[in-house]
Amino acid sequence: MSSVTTSLPQRTLEVRGLGKSFGGIHAVKDISFDVAPGEIVGLIGPNGAGKTTCFNLITGFYSPTTGQVRLGGEDVTGKKPFEMARMGIVRSFQKTNILKSLTVFENVLTGHYLEARQPLWRTFLPRREVRATEDRVRESAARIVRTLGLEHRIDTPASALSCGELRLLEVALALAAKPEILMLDEPAAGLNSQEARTFGEILKTLRGTLVRSILIVEHNMSLVMGVSDRIVVMHFGQKLAEGSPVDIQANTQVIEAYLGGGNQA
Amino acid sequence: MNFEKRILLSLMGLAAVLPLFVSDQYMLHIAIMVLFFAVLASSLNLVVGYVGEFSLGHTAFLGTGAYTAAILSTQYGWPLWATIPTAGALAALVGVVIGVLTLRLQGPFFVIVTLSFAEVLRLIADNWIGLTNGPMGIAGVPQPEWLTQASNLAAKQFYYGLAWALLALTLYMSFRFVYSNAGRAAVAVRENRYVAQSIGIRPLNYTMLALVLGAALSGMAGGFYAHYISFVGPEVFRFAFMVSMIIMVLIGGKGTLVGPLIGALLVTFLEEYLREAKELRLSIFGLAVIAIVLFLPRGLMGFIAQRREGHGGDQPVNDRSTAAAPNTQRSST
Fold it and tell me: What number does CATH give the domain B2-301?
């Protein structure tokens, strides 16, 4: 399992001057940051700061009004979501998005789509290689389910999972696509503090084993401060600050944005 | 998966030996219609169950196939073994055209636009008299040479074999599709387009594949129909065929491979036995559909699957997870 990332290319995700306006409203304005290989970057900010919009812009669900997204120096701005996935950027969603009527295992197996892809005629006349691939992705799916601690639920339909298990399944599904950069949108929403801690531990083990880098949007401060190497803070669609978790926690502007400004004259 | 494969194989095995025991021509005719409708319902199921959109235009493919076979054999003298595959190919082409235009639509929009395509084709068949002979239809679609000398029973047996082969092909193609990476991708698109795209699936590729596969199979069924009935008129595009297909898929259970077969069997027999009830027949079917949608939304096969799952649920949780482990090693065949 630990050898997986050695085959992945070392590419930096660069976001440059990214902006999106809906009508006259600037949801995201002039955002720039990098996710370097091997990094976990946290993207935080109060509700409505434009974090999810930022995610949608990077992964091609929205096309940006201004700015650029580059991967390893190559301009990938405005590519379609499935093209971004094929280039190694896979995301999860803020509002839980999984394949509801399938079991946990089937969900994760389906996530191996790119790995199990084959020429069309092979679908109807499968040969030994196709079966070998199927066996391989089945094993890999079982391994990912185990990594996220869902093995006791492996044959349970996704619709019967608890909220916390659903969040884990969503990450498992994204991991199944074998991304170079994993983007998680509030993966710990709805988890209690114990579950969130466990989740943080899992995230740290993923880097360098199953994925190279992680970009995470999260409101759970102890989680995001605990796992991130670097934090980018957004406020009203713009970048407010960037730095190490320690710097950010001491940053007066950030505290003001979250708690409101005091009148310390 | 093994469960479904076993049922399919045993059903097809039973169907293969049936003509050894049945020599009544009328019964054989009904059996042929069951096989024919099983092909149609299975092909519609690929669209309804695996694209996840309700197509009311499936008769467009059936009709295209029927007219293709009828025209090629009456006007150009093509033999049956060439007309039926060509019927499938042309229906697939129509599938591509309709797919390009409709697969970007969802829900009621998809339903209405596919329905209008079938209607447009019906109007063409009705009015392009030079090609289709208009409302008179094309009569006397030729039979294979040797069949004209053979007895009626032998002819029925021949068509039974042909329909069986067509259904076997349909089930093979559907089975391969459903239990492949492509089938999983189609289900992913059906379940959640956002997830599908985020794991690298281009939705149109797989909705199109399911639609075109369904179109090709029902086109071949149309070609078969033309030769067997030896008459093709504009009513092949009519809603009546569509209604039968929908009822079969719904009763049997959409999104399963066995469901449409059970549906075809039940509905074809019911239609025969309720023939005396005439108009009342349609009302009875209407009530049956309402009951199915209300009480068995996943159809008969869905109901059976649920029962099977229910039995699994009686066991302690630990047993299930250990039982699940070897599952993951299972080969795909």
Answer: 1.10.3470
Alpha helices in B179-202 (DSSP H): 181-191, 193-198
Q: Do A102 and B197 touch (CB under 8 A)?
A: no
CB contact under 8 A, A113 and B328: no
> How many whole angstroms separate alpha carbon B291 and alpha carbon B312?
27
A18-22, A119-123, B28-32, B319-323: least confident range: B319-323
The answer to whether residues B221 and B167 touch, using CB atoms and an 8 Å cutoff, is no
Among the partner-chain residues A154, A176, A177, the one whose CB lies closest to the CB of B324 is A154
CA pair distance B139, B133, nearest whole angstrom = 9
Looking at residue B55, what is its pLDDT? 85
Interface of A with B in 100-159 (CB under 8 A): 100-102, 105-106, 109-114, 116-118, 120, 123-126, 130-131, 134-135, 138-139, 141-142, 151-152, 154-155
Domain parsing of chain B, residue ranges = 2-301
User: What six digits make up the tokens of A134?
Assistant: 């199927």
**Distant-in-sequence, close-in-space partners of B205: CB < 8 Å, separation ≥ 6:** B185
Interchain CB distance below 8 Å, A82 and B201? yes
Residue A174 has a pLDDT of: 93
- pLDDT per residue as tens digits for the range A209-264: 889 999 999 988 889 999 999 999 999 888 898 999 989 888 888 888 877 765 55
User: What is the C-alpha R_g of chain B?
Assistant: 21
For the four alpha carbons of B231, B234, B235 and B241, in that order, the dihedral sign comes to positive
- Tell me the mean pLDDT in the region B265-271: 87
pLDDT in tens, B63-85: 999 999 999 998 888 888 889 99
The pLDDT of residue B322: 36
Q: What is the pLDDT of residues B299-329, one digit of tens each?
A: 887 777 777 766 544 333 333 333 333 333 3
Closest by Cα among B115, B333, B142 to B229: B142
Where does residue B248 rank: exposed (0-12), middle (13-18), buried (19+ CB within 10 A)? Answer: buried
Q: Catalogue the E-assigned strands of A23-122.
A: 25-35, 40-44, 66-71, 74-75, 89-91
- What tokens were used for A132? 């070998």
pLDDT of residue A262: 55
Task: Supply the pTM of this predicted model.
Answer: 0.85
Whether B180 and A176 lie within 8 Å, measured CB to CB: no
| CB contact burial B198-227 (16+ within 10 A = b; e otherwise) | bbbbbbeebbbbbbbbbbbbbbbbbbbbbb
Strand partners for A12: none
Domains and CATH numbers, chain A: 13-88+180-257 (3.40.50.300), 98-178 (no CATH)
Under 8 Å CB-to-CB from B256, ≥6 apart: which residues? Answer: B4, B45, B49, B299, B301, B302, B305
Count CB atoms within 10 A of the CB of residue B130: 7
**Chain B residues in contact with A106 (beta carbon < 8 A):** 184
A-chain CB neighbours of B208 within 8 Å are: none
